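ok so i was messing around last nite and threw this chain in just to see what happens. nothing serious, just curious
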Amino acid sequence: MDKVVSSAADAVADIPDGATLAVGGFGLSGVPSVLIDAILEAGTTDLEAVSNNCGVDEWGLGRLLFAKRIRRMISSYVGENKEFARQYLSGELEVELTPQGTLAERMRAGGSGIPGFYTATGVGTQVAEGGLPWKYDAEGTVVVASPPKETKVFSTAEGEKEYVLERAIVADFALVRAWKGDRHGNLVYRRSARNFNPLAAMCGRVTIAEVEHLVEPGELDPDLVHTPGVYVQRVVPLTPEQAADKRIEKVTTRPRPEQGADPVQGSDDAASFGLGG
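result:
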């Protein structure tokens, strides 16, 4: 089945207001920015986004956030996004902060048909006991707090141990970015872009993938496929310009060594990281 869609706009055209979106990416790596921009241009609003973080101001999911299209976030990291913090603390945005590993497993479980699982992460904290502030009002009063979760004691090799029940996440739509993909929806991610993208692809009822390099069926080594096409419903091939648009969250450089100086000893940064002799 050929799953290629002619444009990002066509691929996201049926995403309704109020939908839940699982979005791949970590920081600015592997972010499906073209699909996000298409949703922004479509005017879709009142969204619930499930992603490790909400990008940065004015890029990635941060663009939807800045336009106030996101009603609720399920994430594990606020990051450098000042607008995210502002909306959350002023009562404009509901945020369900979730431990990163737990968030990853909730998405994987949703894609595997597992309704929930027990984990030791969060036991003895507000993650399990409830009371985490999900939403404030304009005066800073908590108006929505996390509920207490079910816990259970299991026998382990170390003895009796308490675990907390976490529920799976299944999203209405998932947006991911892949390095390569074929017309059947098989996807390959490259390096650090293989972060939350495979998990997001699994947990979406309808998964839309933007791919940097579209290849024909049979050109991908089956042993190297990270997301099988069974999880993907739509494929959007990117232009070379779109594929090359990759942002860097923080640029860190060091001074060039003086001519003739030792390339390691001549760098204060290198010495500060213990690289000097």
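not much to say yet. The CA atoms of residues 33 and 60 lie 5 Å apart.
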